[in-house]
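During the no-cost extension, the postdoctoral fellow (Dr. R.K.) reprocessed legacy sequence entries with the updated structure-token encoder. One reprocessed record is reproduced below for audit purposes.
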Amino acid sequence: MLKTKSKQKPKKTRQEINEESWALKRKRKHKGLPSGSRFNNETQKNKPTTKTVKDPRIGSIKPISLIADESVKSTNKIKQPKTQKLVLSPEQELEQLENDPKLEQLLDLVESGSQLTKEQQTYLDTKLNRIDELMQQLGYSVDDFEDEEEKQEDIVSLLKRN
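Re-encoded structure tokens follow.
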């Protein structure tokens, strides 16, 4: 025997099929995130705020005049070439140090027994040390100069006696 289905579903009309497909399409359309979500402020509130560091090289608050004023001079100064120190021979340097007026004044103050300031004392020490170095380089000794001075004093004293 043949079995017949007593309850068959009636065929849907074209109108009903279209309505069901539109409903399914609406459901699929609203499946993801709402449109324009990256521009909404709601999403920014949820994210931790990170401060962006502004590049200080871009933009300036300082106003710049568009007309060149004569009163404003150029800020770029012309660099003058540095004067090169002349390299002196040890003899010339020793002669300069012996003829130094400031050094002579300080030596006179020391001989008279007056106190020197720290600056004067350091100047005197450095110059005397340099004189000693130059004399050693040239092969002079302090005894040579003292002997000559003593001989001159002896001659002067002998002349005065006579």
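The chain has a mean pLDDT of 76. Residues 40 and 57 are 31 Å apart (CA to CA). The remaining legacy entries will be reprocessed before the final report is submitted.
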